[in-house]
Amino acid sequence: MLPEEAHEALCRVFCERASVAAVPVGLAVSTGFLLPDGDPLTFYVVETADGIVLEDDGDFFATAVASGLPIESGTRAQLLAGILRQEGAYLDRDTCQIRSEPVTAADFGRAAARFVSALIRARDLHLLTQEHIASTFAEDVRAEAERRLGDRFRIEDEEHADLPADFVVTSVQTGRRAAIVYAATSNERMLTALVRHMGREKDDAPVFAVVERIGGGSVSNRTMEVAVNRGLRTPVFGSDPEGAMAFLLREIKEAAVA
């Protein structure tokens, strides 16, 4: 097949399956990409005082939240924001709609291609594995601890442990281990931290299980109750990551001088 033939075939397929119709808000564009429910991926073109804005109908985000997908906060929320930002779009939380930044008529075609890419990539968050989420959350907690603790503490991987934590914190001044930190993104990881906590000796560093969220496929209420009732320190990010990090850092500093 010649390049010209391939180009013609591709243009024909994409154009034949796309349609544009006038609607009250502006234009409705139906693409050739099919969603899992069989409906075509559709977006709207709205002319504003700042330029042309592309937007979806808000169903994706609203349905994801209603179905229990943890997309409002935590790792998936950060990934969604990153995906949209790369494609020149953002999430309007007031309307649950994904919108593009305003563009000119001359840039409409390129902006439309990027916007369709954003809508497709956003839906891939449904497929994000728990292992990926766990790894990303652990990295985020570690990076934030490193930033806030500065050079007074050393943060390292834990080696030669039967139940290795995601990282350990050691005081540079005293050489004393101040914290053993697990990123608890699942019941299994929370129970691992609990076993470590219950088996620690009197002079061992305290064990922390930093929780991304409770319920919705993460740590269950029952597991959380068991951990808390047995004295495991469990700062919860949820909707208050600042409070969770403040608790973690305060406890680390106290343990370093205890």
Please tell me the CATH architecture of the largest domain by its name: 3-Layer(aba) Sandwich
Round the Cα radius of gyration to an integer and report it: 24 Å
Percentage beta strand: 15-25%
For the record, the count of structural domains works out to: 2
Distance between the termini: 74 Å
Instruction: Please state the structural category.
Output: alpha+beta
- Any idea what the shape is? elongated
| CATH classification class of the largest domain | Alpha Beta
- The total count of helices amounts to 8
* Strand arrangement, major sheet: 1-2-3-4
Written account of the structure:
The protein is α+β, with helices and mostly antiparallel strands and 258 residues long. The chain is built from 8 helices and 10 strands. A hairpin with a 5-residue loop joins strand 2 and strand 3 (40-48). The protein starts with a helix and ends with a helix. The model has no long low-confidence stretch (mean pLDDT 83).
Short summary of the structure?
This protein is α+β, with helices and mostly antiparallel strands and 258 residues long. It has helices at 3-16, 59-66, 74-86, 108-123, 130-149, 187-198, 221-229, 241-257, and strands at residues 19-23, 26-34, 40-48, 51-55, 89-92, 97-100, 153-156, 167-171, 177-184, 207-211.
Tags for this entry?
10 strands; alpha+beta; 258 residues; 42% helix; Trna Endonuclease, Chain: A, domain 1; four-stranded antiparallel beta sheet
